[in-house]
Structures are given as structure tokens and as C-alpha cells.
Write a sequence for this structure.
């Protein structure tokens, strides 16, 4: 979108932010909840894109970090009271990060197809851990009857039972996570991550600690996924093993590609687009999953660059790309070195 | 545990491993030769079982279900290769992941439309329905023994094709070095579609063969997909012998894990995989992929 001037883009961005802030004032509760849900999915997609888009590592276990953090909240919430957010939020994010560190350290020993399969298998291991054992209520999952409390010395700072309060908390944390990822990918660390994606051997011979850089990115990404999972569990008041399953991981991958691989904001747009689409399909068709599947297949062949490419095509702009954008080629490029 | 119980469990483990081998060998061939990651492999295992249920319900003939189910899966595989997969050979793995995920959703929903989401069972052929008495309380179903035999014959056939035939030679050359094989003028791209369809037919065959001893249900493909992945990771991508070793390791670990450590049996195979990754990141018989 080179011909859209920078000023216009900033203006459009400011408008979206203003609308996001104003939404609860005019929109019915259902839409506020829906937007909060989509924002949390956007946060999960944002985290996955750090690894997939900038690291060139196709991970299929991010739902496991998302679900794990949700289960931490579920297990820390007492029967008839809310968990303290000061304790449960850091705990959930740290557990997700620790899981990402262990899984990442093992998976990053492999490349390409292996990496995809190994992350998928470890993610499913966590799924079966919660599905088959009694840790978190087995296949029935856990209810979180009272939302986590954000209080200082007995005074409640933010009542999360209030939909608007929850919405603004999710919005603020999504903004924080987005800024974090934006700064990260622009930093020397982010450059090293991209360098390793584009040419691992060259990055290694230039002295970049490729394994450590990738693992760090994987852990940060797992922690952001955990944050999204924590908030998601708080929103729905329920966690189940499906939250950790690889179908969610793959769906989030679709969001990333839909919005544009290797752009900071793209995955959030992709999350809103896919969730909105799912909602519309569910309302109109009994076999909506069939249509969703066909749309994913069409995405792969017709618009591998995602929505941005579609927008560019519809304006008949001269920015016609052949094949996918440069970023995701990496894994193949690596194996051909 | 006495000797007979041990022997029965051993047989169960080997039999599970043999079925795993059938499914995983199809997966590893598609990975190794086409360089394509196919997440829909498990969906075809499930589809095979439903085909078996469907054909045997109308004909009452398991043999017909076996042949018909495999033929249908092979035909679907050929069609998918021609329409979709062919276009992805040069593309990155991300596109392949998304395509096969989309196909899973489509296949699952089509199955739901055609067969519903009920759990079904398939009758084994009458002459294989009995069981052999081992002691007063233990007996072993004949079908399970026949299943072992069928799987062994099929495994031998797969090894024969790959190691001893002209087709196998082209396949092995392609798995070794795709570009060099093409450069030498060997018609490697012609076999692509048969490898893909064959891989899918093997997955369906696995589903058909287990349908008389397990139930036929919608989620059966997902579990199989993950375990086949673990088998391929253990054995090494593209290595049929590696898939055989990996499949037997998983079959025995899972079966004896359920006997000795029922609490943690479901994660034992992943612990095994983690161990192999630490020791040999490219699998037991895998080549370095870089």
C-alpha cells in the first residue's frame, strides 16, 4: 500500500483507536463482549506472529500456552471468591513462559517440517495432560465462578464483572503487547531474529546466537499467548482442554496469514476478520465449518498475502505480487542453502 | 504379571505398532519425497474407517469394504494432488499447513453430512470372528492375529516396492535429492501424484483395518495424526525403516505404559520423543535437513 500516504495511514489508525475507545459507549453489551473476545484472539495472533512472521518458525503449539495460562487462573481461583490478579496474572504468564522455554528448547533443535511436527506433538501432550488426568477436571474442564480481583488493600481498582471495565483492560493490555512486539521487532534483537529467518548460516557466521535469539522470541511469544489465555479464561469463566488443542493453534495461524504475515498489526486485523466471519457463518449456515475450510483453502491459493493483498487487488493497484510475501519463504530457503 | 499376560500385552503392543507403521509410513513418504506436510493425514485414517463402516453396512462384506475403501481414498488422493497439492510443492510449509487444515475442516464436515457424528462398529469377516483360548480366563481374538499378519505382509510389500523395484528406485532417488533426480532426467514428478495418493491410501487402510477392533468415531483421526507425527519424528523424515522402528517403539511404550504407569501413560510417548530429540534431533534414521 505504498501509494497511501503516511498521513492518511496515521489518520486511519487514530480513527480506529478512537472508535475502539468509544465502542462501549454506544454499542450493545453483546458487541462489547464480542470485541473483547476478538481482541484477546488478536493478542494470541500477535504473539504467534512474532515467531512465525519474524522468526520464520511455524509453531503449532501456541494454543497450549494460551490454555495453560487459563488453567493456572482456573486452579488458583477459590470456590466462591475471585483470585487476586496481582498473584494469578504473573503466575499464569510465568507458567506459560516456562512451558514455552522447555518446549522451545527441545523444538528449536529441529528445523522446517520437523519443527512443525514437534511443536504440534508437545502442544498435544499438554492437551492430553489436562484431558486425561484429574488436574483440571479432566475433559469437563473447570469453571471460574468469580472473576479475578484487582484490588489494593481491599479497595477494588477495577471490577472485571463489569463488561466495560473488562473491555478496557483487554484493550489496554492489547495495546501494551502490540507496543512491546513493535519495539521488539525494531530492536537489534528483532533484526537478529529476522536475519536468522532469512539466512540461518549467514546469521550464525556473523556471530548471532541464533538458538538463543529464537528461544527468547519463543518464550516472549509464549508469555503474551499466556496473557491472552488468562484474560480469555477470565472472560468466559470456563477453561476446557480444547483451549489447548491444536485446532485453535491452526485457527490462529489462519488469522496471522489472513491479516498479513510479518506485520505487527496484521494479525490483530486477521483475528477480527476471522472471528467476525465465523460469527456470520455460524448464524447463516448449519455446516459453516465446511465454508470456513473452503475459505482457508481459497486463502492459500488466491491471497497468500492476506487481506492487504485483497485490498490491493480490489483497487487494481500496480502492486501485484507473485506468490507470498518474502517473509514466510524462510523455512524453504533455509533447507536449500 | 505372568508370562501369558505379558505375551498378550506384547502382542497388543506389536499389533498397535504395526498399524501405526502403516499410517506413519504413508506420512513419512509424503514428507520425505514431496516435501509436503499433510495435517489431513489423520482425517483420511478416520475417513477410511467410515468408508469401511459404510460399505460393509450395505454389502455385509468386509473384504469389499477393504478394497473399496482403499480405492476411494486413492482416488480422492489423486484428485487432491492434481487440484491443490501440486501447486504447493514450491511453496513454504506455512501454506501447506493452512491448506491441510482447511481440508481437515472440509473433510470433517462432509463426513458429518454423509455419515453423521454417531459412533459405529464394523463387523470382522465371520471366519475371523472367533477367539483363541489361552487360559481359563484369557483368550485372544483371531482378528487381531490376522491383523498382525496382514500388516506384516503389507510392510514387506512396502519395503519390497521401495527397495527392489524401479518405482522404488525413483522414489528413493527423489527423497535423497529432488533437484539432482530431475536434472538426471528421471521422471520423478510423474510419481509425485501416486506417492501422495498412496500415502493417503495407507492412512485409510490403517483406519479400515482397525475398524473391527475399535469403534469408528469422528475424532479418531486427530489422535492418530499426532501419534504418526511422533513416529515420524522418532524415525526420521522420509525413512520407511525409521517409521517401522518408531512405530514399534511407540506401540510397545504405549501398551506397556498403560499397564505399568496408567497415571502418566498418555504423556509417556512424548517423553520418549523428547529424549530422542535431545539425542538425535533428526530422528533415529533421519538425515540432517539443512
Amino acid at each position: 500500500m505504498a501509494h497511501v500516504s503516511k498521513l492518511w495511514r496515521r489518520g486511519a489508525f487514530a480513527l480506529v483507536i478512537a472508535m475502539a475507545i468509544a465502542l462501549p459507549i454506544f454499542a450493545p453489551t453483546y458487541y462489547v463482549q464480542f470485541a473483547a473476545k476478538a481482541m484477546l484472539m488478536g493478542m494470541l495472533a500477535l504473539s504467534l506472529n512474532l515467531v512465525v512472521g519474524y522468526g520464520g518458525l511455524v509453531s503449532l503449539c501456541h494454543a497450549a500456552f494460551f490454555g495453560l495460562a487459563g488453567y493456572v487462573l482456573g486452579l488458583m481461583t477459590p470456590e466462591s471468591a475471585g483470585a487476586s490478579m496481582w498473584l494469578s496474572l504473573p503466575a499464569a504468564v510465568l507458567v506459560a513462559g516456562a512451558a514455552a522455554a522447555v518446549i522451545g528448547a527441545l523444538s528449536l533443535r529441529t528445523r522446517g517440517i520437523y519443527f512443525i511436527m514437534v511443536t504440534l506433538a508437545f502442544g498435544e501432550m499438554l492437551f492430553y495432560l489436562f484431558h486425561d488426568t484429574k488436574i483440571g477436571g479432566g475433559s469437563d474442564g473447570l469453571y471460574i465462578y468469580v472473576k479475578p480481583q484487582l484490588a489494593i488493600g481491599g479497595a477494588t481498582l477495577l471490577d472485571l464483572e463489569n463488561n466495560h471495565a473488562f473491555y478496557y483492560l483487554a484493550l489496554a493490555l492489547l495495546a501494551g503487547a502490540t507496543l512491546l512486539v513493535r519495539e521488539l521487532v525494531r530492536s537489534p534483537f528483532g533484526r537478529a531474529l529476522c536475519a536468522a529467518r532469512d539466512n540461518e548460516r549467514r546469521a550464525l557466521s556473523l556471530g548471532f546466537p541464533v538458538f538463543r535469539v529464537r528461544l527468547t522470541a519463543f518464550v516472549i511469544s509464549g508469555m503474551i499467548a499466556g496473557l491472552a489465555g488468562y484474560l480469555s479464561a477470565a472472560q468466559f469463566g470456563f477453561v476446557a482442554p480444547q483451549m489447548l488443542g491444536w485446532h485453535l493453534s491452526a485457527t490462529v495461524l489462519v488469522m496471522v496469514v489472513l491479516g498479513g504475515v510479518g506485520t505487527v498489526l496484521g494479525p490483530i486485523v486477521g483475528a477480527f476478520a476471522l472471528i467476525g466471519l465465523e460469527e456470520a457463518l455460524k448464524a447463516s449456515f448449519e455446516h459453516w465449518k465446511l465454508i470456513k475450510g473452503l475459505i482457508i483453502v481459497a486463502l492459500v491459493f488466491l491471497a497468500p498475502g492476506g487481506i492487504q493483498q485483497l485490498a490491493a487487488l480490489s483497487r487494481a493497484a500496480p502492486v501485484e505480487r507473485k506468490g507470498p510475501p518474502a517473509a514466510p519463504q524462510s523455512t524453504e530457503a533455509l533447507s536449500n542453502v | 504379571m505372568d508370562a501369558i499376560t505379558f505375551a498378550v500385552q506384547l502382542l497388543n503392543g506389536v499389533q498397535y505398532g504395526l498399524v501405526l507403521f502403516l499410517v506413519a509410513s504413508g506420512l513419512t513418504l509424503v514428507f520425505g519425497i514431496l516435501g509436503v506436510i499433510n495435517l489431513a493425514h489423520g482425517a483420511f485414517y478416520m475417513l477410511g474407517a467410515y468408508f469401511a463402516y459404510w460399505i460393509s453396512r450395505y454389502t455385509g462384506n468386509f473384504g469389499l469394504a477393504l478394497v473399496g475403501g482403499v480405492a476411494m481414498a486413492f482416488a480422492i488422493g489423486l484428485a487432491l494432488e492434481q487440484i491443490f497439492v501440486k501447486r504447493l510443492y514450491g511453496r513454504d510449509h506455512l501454506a501447506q499447513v493452512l491448506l491441510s487444515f482447511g481440508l481437515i475442516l472440509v473433510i470433517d464436515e462432509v463426513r458429518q453430512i454423509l455419515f453423521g457424528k454417531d459412533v459405529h462398529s464394523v463387523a470382522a469377516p465371520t471366519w475371523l470372528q472367533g477367539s483363541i483360548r489361552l487360559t481359563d480366563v484369557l483368550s485372544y481374538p483371531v482378528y487381531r492375529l490376522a491383523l498382525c499378519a496382514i500388516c506384516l505382509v503389507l510392510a514387506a510389500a512396502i519395503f519390497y516396492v521401495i527397495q527392489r523395484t524401479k518405482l522404488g528406485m525413483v522414489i528413493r532417488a527423489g527423497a535423497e535429492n529432488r533437484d539432482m533426480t530431475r536434472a538426471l532426467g528421471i521422471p520423478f514428478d510423474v510419481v509425485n501424484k501416486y506417492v501422495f495418493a498412496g500415502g493417503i491410501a495407507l492412512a485409510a487402510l490403517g483406519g479400515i483395518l482397525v475398524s473391527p477392533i475399535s469403534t469408528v468415531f469422528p475424532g479418531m483421526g486427530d489422535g492418530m495424526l499426532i501419534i504418526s507425527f511422533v513416529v515420524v519424528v522418532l524415525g526420521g523424515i522420509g525413512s520407511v525403516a525409521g517409521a517401522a522402528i518408531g512405530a514399534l517403539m511407540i506401540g510397545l511404550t504405549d501398551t506397556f505404559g498403560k499397564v505399568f504407569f496408567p497415571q502418566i501413560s498418555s504423556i509417556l510417548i512424548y517423553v520418549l520423543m523428547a529424549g530422542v530429540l535431545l539425542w538425535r534431533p533428526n530422528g533415529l534414521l533421519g538425515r540432517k535437513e539443512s
User: Anything to note?
Assistant: The first strand of chain A starts at residue 142 and ends at 143. Residues 200 and 328 of chain A are 14 Å apart (CA to CA).
